[in-house]
Structures are given as structure tokens and as C-alpha cells.
Amino acid sequence: MWLFDRDLWFEVFNTLGKNAFRTILTMLGVVIAMLILVLLLAGSNGMSNMFNSIFAGTASNSLFVWGQSTSEPYKGFERGRRIRYKIEDAEILKKQIPEIEVLAPRIELGNHRGVTTVYRKGRTSGSSVYGDYPEIDEITKKKLVEGRFLNRTDIEDSKKVCVIGEETYKLLFDKGEDAIGEDIRINGVFFSVVGMYKPNNNINIDGENAVFIPFTTFQKAFNSGDRMGWMAISVEPNTKVAVVEKRIKDIIKYKYDIHPDDERAIGSFNMSEIFNNINSFTSVLRFVSFFIGVTSLFAGVIAVSNILLITIKERTKELGVRRALGATPRVVRRQVLLESIVITVFAGLIGFTFAIGLLYWLNTWLGDGKEGIPLLDPMVSVPQFLWSFFFMITLSLLIGLIPAYRAVKIRPIEALREE
């Protein structure tokens, strides 16, 4: 096989080594181009990883729905009527919309984003107090430090237990003190701590100074009746959240006699829209990075072709002698193409190695992320490297055809006349 022809490889490296300085300068363009390509791809990947870490623990196919005030009079009701949900609304929505995967009714003590004083042994904490079902942990995951989260037994038995945030712990307990099994007091009612969580360093919907108690316990302890503050909902995969959101609003509007065109009566927040927008942004960023990197690589490979054309001109007499001695066009073409590939691949590997070294240092410096730098674990994936390497080799073959064609077109008799 010609690839294992020692004479062929000797001629290739001998030709490239005749003017080593020019060969190195030619390779430098490809090295820089590969360096730019890898760093741009790694940067876009790092930004994508940062966005994913922000959304980690929050269901991307989720939405939150709450009641507001009507802005349109309807069926005898005046404008400005406050919409207050009931717990039965959750069951109605689950029955009528099978695409709903998880629906967690929620309620908060006091007004939305209000603060309730929590007591323990003379110490206080201004915390948000939520009544929740265990399903809420499937939508906004809590990173437990110790203990457990709420479970179905807590709901069924209306247990007076709670899960507290790390900030709440710092305000109510001494450092190193075990909180599990200890009691805290909320509006005169004692609750036993069964778990403690800390922020996920991502989207923090509930905050870190919060207390979670079973929804049924909340109803009895604070006399909330059948009221429900809002709903956290996740839909089945491959289901458009916006479609489910509209159906939810239509059902609620019909039940509470809200004008069909009233856009203010029902508040909602579609997490999937933000997630999809960010995915679109990172996809465009990857494409732009790849395009710029490939353009730089293309420019570097063209420089290789230009240098080989100059080399062919300088080797006109040599090529003519080889043709006169019986070298076929295929042999000449093969050698020139191999020279193009050797220069490009070797330079590309140097650029890739240097880029990986820079990225390794950058990852060591960034650690788990630095404030103000929107990058997390910037690195190229194996498929990205393979595609880039394959493209580089293909490009070197195509560009190498130009000087190869020029070499084949040299006629022996004309070459021998060259001075």
C-alpha cells in the first residue's frame, strides 16, 4: 500500500525540510486557526454549561400559575375582582389536561413574597413559609444538606414537620448545632425540623431563607381552608408548555367567570420559554463560533496551498526529471497531496494540543465558576474535535489538488529547459 511506502515518506519530509523556516511559518497559520476554532467552540460550550447549571434542579418544561385581579367586567362582576384558587382546581386541571405530568398546589403564609417571623429559643428569622406537597421537589429540586424533604405520610397525617433553608438555620441555630428533630415556632405553632437544604447556585424560586411544611398541616395550623395560592406544573416531554398554559387559563377563566380576553386575571410564568430561548442562543453561538473557526482554518489551509504552489515552481526541474524517468502523474499528485496533508494535520494537532493546554489551565483557574465570568467547564467534545479534524483533512485534500494539478501539468521537456 502506498501509505507504507518508505521512499514516498522520505521524499515528502525531505521536500518539507529543505526550507524548514518557510514550512514552520506555513504551519503557524494552521496552528493559530486550529487554536481559534477550539477556543471558540470551548467558549460556547462553557457558556452553555453555565446556563445549564443555572437551570439545574428546575424542570425546564414547567410553568407557574397564580391568581391576580380582573381587568375586564364580566357576567355582572366588576373590574378588579381578586381571583383566589381552591384546592379542587388542581384536581380539575389534572383530570381535564392529561399532558400535565406533575401539579403541585402551593400556599404561602402572608402575602406573596411576604416575611413571617419564625422563633426558636429567643432567636428569630424573617422567613418565607410555604405549604407544599412533596411533588414540588420534582419541579424545583432542593439540595438537601441533611435530613429529608416532605413525603406523602406527612401530607396524609398532617404532621407538624418542616424543612428549613440554610439561611434560616444560620439565624435560628448555633454553628454546628444539629437542627434535625429540633422545634421551631411559627405563629404560635411548633414544627419539628426534618430536613435542611442549601441553594443550588441556580434559579432560586423560593429563596434560601424559607420554611416548607406539609400543605394539609398548613391548612389546619393556619386555617387556610380550601384556598390555594398558586400552582407549580410540569408537563410531559415533547409537549408544548405554551399549549398547556393556554388550556389551563381557559379552564380557570370558565370556572371563575373571567372575561375570555382578560389577560391580567391569571398570572403565569413559562419556564420553558426562557429555557428554549437560551438553547436557541447557545445553538446560534456554537454555529457562529464554528463558522469563524472554520473560516480561520480555511485561510490557514489556503496559505499551505500557496506555499506548495511556490514549492512546485521551485521544483520544476526536479519534477521534470522524475517525469522523464517514468514517474506517473498519479505518483506526483500523491506526493503533493501528502505534503499538504502532513503540513495541515501536524500543524492542526499542535494547535489542538496547545488549545487543550490553555483550556486545562482555564478550567483549573475557574474551578466551579467565577463571579462575572459566564463560563463553566469550557472544553470541546469528542464529536466536535472529530468533525473539526475530519474537516481539516478534507480541506487539505481539496486545497492540495491545486498545486498537485500544477505539478502534473509540468511537461518533462519544458522542465528540463528550466534554468
Which range best describes the helical content: under 10%, 10-25%, 25-40%, 40-55%, 55-70% or over 70%? Answer: 40-55%
Average pLDDT value? 82
Largest sheet: 6 strands, mixed, barrel
The main sheet orders its strands as: 4-5-10-7-9-8
Count the strands? 13
Care to describe what's here?
- By secondary structure, this protein is α+β, with helices and mostly antiparallel strands.
- It has 2 domains: 2-55 and 276-416, no CATH class; 62-271, no CATH class.
- Helices cover 53% and strands 18% of the residues.
- It is built from 13 helices and 13 strands.
- The protein has helices at 6-18, 20-55, 87-96, 136-139, 152-156, 166-172, 215-221, 241-255, 271-314, 316-324, 329-366, 382-408, 412-416; strands spanning 62-67, 85-86, 100-108, 116-120, 123-132, 143-147, 161-165, 183-186, 189-198, 210-214, 227-228, 230-235, 266-270.
- Helix 9 runs parallel beside helix 12 (382-408).
Structural features:
419 residues, 6-stranded mixed β-barrel, 13 strands, alpha+beta, two-stranded antiparallel sheet, 13 helices, single chain
